[in-house]
Amino acid sequence: MDELYRDQILEHYKRPHNFGHLDDPDLEFEDTNPFCGDEQHVTIRLDEEGRVAEIAFDGKGCAISTAATSLLTDELVGKTREELLRLPKDFVLELLGIEISATRMKCAMLGLKIVKSASLGQPAEWEDEGETGDPSEAVADLG
Amino acid sequence: MEPVSAKSPTAAPFSIEKVRSAFPALEREVHGQPVAYLDSGASSQRVLASIQSVDRYERRHHSNVHRGSHTLSAEATEAYEGARATVADHIGAADRREVIFVRNATEAINLVARAWGDANVGPGDRIVLTEIEHHSNIVPWQQLAERVGAEIDWVPIDGEGLLDMEALAGLLERGPKLVAVTHVSNVLGTEPPLAEISRLAHEAGALVLVDGAQAVAKLPLDIAELGVDFYALTGHKLYGPTGIGALWGRLELLREMPPFLGGGSMIRKVAREGTTYADVPARFEAGTPAIAQAIGMASALRWLDGLGMEAVRRHELEIADYALERLATVPGLRIFGPPRGPERLGPVSFEIEGIHAHDVSEILDRHGVAVRAGHHCAQPLMDHFGIAATARASFGVYTTTEEIDRLLDGLEDARKVFGL
Predict the structure, then answer these.
(1) What confidence tier does A134 reach under pLDDT thresholds 50, 70, 90?
(2) DSSP E strand boundaries for A11-132
(3) CATH class for domain B51-305?
């Protein structure tokens, strides 16, 4: 069995969860993977307490980026903006449950980066290459 | 595969085994299999003759060029200027002073956009680009247009990726200053009719700059016959080192152009009151150049000349034809660019329905097959086709039909992994 393309990944690639677009979202952001031009657009609706009530994403991407965002968006309902910003890279890697090489790390992290940017209302700046990056750093800018 | 005999009387018959033995990197394995390197369009492997000439220079002859009269400096200068003469010979330049060493084709184009563009393009002037250009032949012109307030027009392509020559004629009626066009598309393998484009552009009073990054390793080149004004090339796509390329320009144009970068070597005299500049090519080669790399690029060109560029071109056409024939049999596979044909060069870009290009390339890599996935630095072209990325197999003098067969096996595995 293929380690990278195990059934769970392919299942989420072919039938991604939360795939679509929310009208009148409270938070939204879209971004691209500059190496390949892949795009994702995330829309989020918050409840009265400011927690994620609904989340959706659409766009075009590879198996890794699509599955990663599909898996990620399954876990975000009920989280506050600050909690979204504190999500570490490992959160996505553990959901994926596979070894991600340095060349595919940008694919795996695209959705998380967009969720953080949506929470922040501006591009979340964090080092997303190699092992050193910590997306939770983005929280510092939250007003 | 069958050895192909060369027509050129000076060249030895083209033997694929002999060619492959000249590339040490082809001996290595990737994931337990001999590498099938189908990414020469991004960067070709280094030919041994070039590696050895760089090594020899670094070990025995290195010194700074054009400085001092000691033996090592004289040897380095002779080798460096000899490299310039080799480039001039290879491309059919009338005068070796028309060859300026730069870092790569990108820098060559930036040099023209800065030195010629800033002096000759003004507010409201127009520059014509084509939809198949690499970012390196787009961004410098957009930057120029922004600096001086010029406008950019785009020549569209048809469904197969061929330039719409009627549209070009229409755009030329608007009196552009320059037409910038690639010699061979790095995505579609198409070769725009440069001689005709030059003739039309010149009739309209425009100059023509050609991005030859892909072409120089594939095609015989005669600058005079093409009739263009500037030509950019890069060493690492023609089996030589990175960090070296060349700009060819018409002598009378280069002489009129102000310097690009300032510094040592490019001056005639520096005084506190001001500086006068050296004649070409030194005017455009500020600072200590990439001496060893220039020698390495020239050595690779000499090696190609030994094969004969007609034979090299025929090999490219044969491999592209075989790849197009085989890929057409893969279910759900869409090829971008023209179908099989006598003039259809590589690369071959494709997508498979249901598998993203990144995933295609990842699975091929496990079979030891190296292809590129992505937008290939040609996002306006990707927009034209309404896609974000393709997989691309690009070829070199060392590419074999067996490697194309391995590409096909890998694609079959990719379809299996994705349950197609």
Answers:
(1) low
(2) 27-32, 39-46, 52-60
(3) alpha beta
* ipTM of the complex as predicted: 0.83
- pLDDT score at A3: 77
Are the C-beta atoms of B230 and B208 separated by less than 8 Å? Answer: yes
Minimal-distance CA residue of chain B relative to A64: B359
Mean pLDDT value across chain A? 87
User: Domain boundaries in chain B?
Assistant: 16-44+309-417, 51-305
Instruction: Supply the DSSP string of B124-177, one letter for each residue.
Output: T-EEEEETT--GGGTHHHHHHHHHHT-EEEEE-B-TTS-B-HHHHHHHHTT--S
Neighboring chain B residues of A61 at a CB cutoff of 8 Å: 356
* B379 contacts A62? CB cut-off 8 A: no
pLDDT surpassing 50 at residue A129: no
CATH of region B16-44+309-417, choose from 3.40.50.10710, 3.10.490.10, 3.90.1150.10, 3.40.1180.10:
3.90.1150.10
* pLDDT value for B67: 80
Nearest to A22 by CA among A55, A46, A53: A55
The predicted structure's pLDDT at residue A102: 87
* pLDDT digits 0-9 by tens, A15-25: 999 999 999 99
Contact at CB, A62 and B356, closer than 8 angstroms: yes
Say what percent of chain A tops pLDDT 90: 66
Nearest CA in chain A to B380: A37
- In 3D space, the residue among B133, B104, B92, B107 whose CA is nearest the CA of residue B43 turns out to be B104
Which of B355, B363, B388 minimises the CB distance to A36?
B388
DSSP 8-state assignment for residue B34: E
Q: Which residues pair with B269 in a beta bridge?
A: B276
The pLDDT value recorded for residue B69 is 84
- Tokens (6 digits) for A48: 């009265």
Residue spans of chain B under pLDDT 70: 1-12
A-interface mutation test, from B358, B363, B364, B417, most A Cβ less than 10 A away: B358
- CATH pick for A7-121 out of 3.40.50.720, 3.90.1010.10, 3.40.50.1240, 3.10.20.600: 3.90.1010.10
- What ranges in B65-137 are assigned the alpha helix state H? 71-91, 105-111, 118-120
- Would you say A40 and A18 are in contact if contact means Cβ atoms under 8 Å apart? no
Burial of B276 (0-12, 13-18, 19+ CB in 10 A): exposed
Pairs of residues, one from chain A and one from chain B, whose beta carbons lie less than 8 Å apart: 47
Distance CA B104, CA B311 (A): 26
**pLDDT(A131) > 60:** no
- Domain positions in chain A are 7-121
